[in-house]
Amino acid sequence: MNNEERLRRLIAEDDERMRILHAVRSLALPDGWIGAGFVRNAVWDALHGLAPRLPASDIDVIWHDPARCDASVDTVLEARLREIDPAPNWSVRNQARMHVRNGDAPYDSCREAMACWPETATAVAARLSAQGTIEISAPFGVDDLWAAIIRPTPAFSTHKHPIFMERVISRQWQRHWPRLRLISGDDQAAATCV
Description:
- It contains 9 helices and 7 strands, in the order ααβαβαβααββαβααβ.
- By secondary structure, the protein is of the alpha/beta class.
- It starts with a helix and ends in a 12-residue tail after the last strand.
């Protein structure tokens, strides 16, 4: 079984994550996914023999629709998700507008936006298809995630590297998951998200 299939199985066996995937699927968002800690933390918990738990901060729901870029649309979607399931701290962001905040060129899809996120292990998302299968989007694959590696994406290996390092320090991931290994990124490819 490859690492992507292992990830699908891990999520499928987690009742809370499946409940959240169902809630997000009910919105029928174009190019809609749940990413970042929702996926990353599930793997890191499993690698450390910890019971699965949802991220304490928020559930990152991403979608892409250039025709609905106003931030108020995300606010409405968060409210709809709270009506469906009030327990999680929902964070909904249309990636068609996030390039402005991030100082990048416009993103054509969620996958392209995730390629501009800080860490390879964070740039992974999941969604539930209409048929009920778990789909994975990971522009850098899922091997770093399963190898417990914190590595910057290409954009965060160069001019955005201080942001990457600040995240590593402030999030204290290695304190929570001590088997994680930090790879600084000095030998990474040139940035493509500018």
